Amino acid sequence: MPSKPNVAHSGASVLPSGADNKYLATFRDQHALSSKSKFAEGRPWWGWREFAANRGHVDGFNSTLWPGDHEIGIGSEWDAPWMPDPIWFSFDYRKNRIRIQYDRIITHYGQKAEEYYRLVNRACAKNGWASVQRGEMPRDSITDVYGDPPMSTRIFQAAQASHPWILGFTDEPDEELARLMGLTIPGAGIYNAPRKDGLISVEEASKLDENALDERIARAVAAALTAAEVKRKADHTAKTRAGVEKAKQTAAAKVA
User: Fold this and answer.
1) Which residues contact 50 (CB under 8 A, 6 or more apart)?
2) Residues 249, 253: Cα–Cα separation, whole Å
3) H/E element holding 12?
4) Phi and psi of 2, rounded to 5°?
5) Please, which residues bridge with residue 49 across strands?
6) CB-based contacts of 43: which residues, under 8 Å, 6+ apart?
7) pTM, 2 dp
8) How far apart are the first and last CA of the chain?
9) Kind and range of the H or E element at 10?
10) Residues whose CB is less than 8 angstroms from the CB of residue 15 and which lie 6 or more positions away in sequence, other chains included
11) How many CB atoms lie within 10 A of CB 164?
């Protein structure tokens, strides 16, 4: 990682543009682990800060934040099975600290799960299927429409409680949390299971009344079937052309 340039903030209302207007900084979050030096004061996050345009304003981050300490570089990097989105970060710019706002994350995903399972069980009731409990994976015919359930709040609660695997303090996986995250543990390492995206988002579906929702789902299913048919025909055409080309090459080789 690059070194932090030696730049002083003049406090002027008009500041240089481009690279001269930025500098690297490392902040640490609330998760400290005294037994590991790089985590002793919290997990490090580094990124580019930009001088505030006006006197008295705070220099904010204007880039992605990466796990690690820019001043230490190699050896300070870290990884974790769940990385919080910076939208949930609260910054203390005077102390170079980050606080991950778990209460907000848990509330947000709890509300998403509540709405998701409301829509899922509405579909179950309409089709005469058994209801689905929160935390369960619905049948494919439902996830094809609404996608996979939102991430379980138990994942964020584990991080809030400083679970060592979720925070990246250990490589020893927690099988139950891995299952909740849709990860598989094949004995050597962990693999991501791709999340299924639905034909209609829960946010969009929740704004529609029953008739409008049924119509929207019908249109989405029809569009998906049309796209699948177009792809099937394109694949068939490509396969046919490849076969013809191979036959031509074989014939040419025999003539030669």
Assistant:
1) 21, 22, 59, 60, 61, 62
2) 6
3) none
4) -70, 160
5) 23, 61
6) 28, 29, 31, 67, 78, 167, 168
7) 0.70
8) 57
9) none
10) 21, 51, 53
11) 15
Sign of the torsion formed by the C-alpha atoms of 142, 157, 195 and 225:
positive
The two tokens of residue 158 are 């584990």
The first and second tokens of residue 21, run together, are 């207007």
Tally of CB atoms within 10 A around 207: 10
What is the rounded radius of gyration, in angstroms, for the C-alpha atoms of the chain?
26
Residues 196 and 147: beta-carbon distance below 8 Å? yes
Overall residue count recorded for the chain in this entry: 256
CA dist 176 and 113 (Å) reads: 19
Tokens at residue 43, please? 């997990």
Alpha-carbon distances, residue 71 vs 62, 66, 83 (angstroms): 19, 13, 22
pLDDT in tens, the chain (256 residues): 333 322 222 333 334 445 568 889 999 999 999 888 889 999 999 999 888 777 667 777 877 899 999 988 888 999 999 999 999 999 999 899 999 999 999 999 999 999 999 989 988 888 888 999 988 888 888 888 888 899 999 999 999 999 999 999 998 989 899 988 888 776 545 666 667 777 777 777 777 777 777 776 667 666 666 665 666 767 767 777 776 677 667 766 766 6
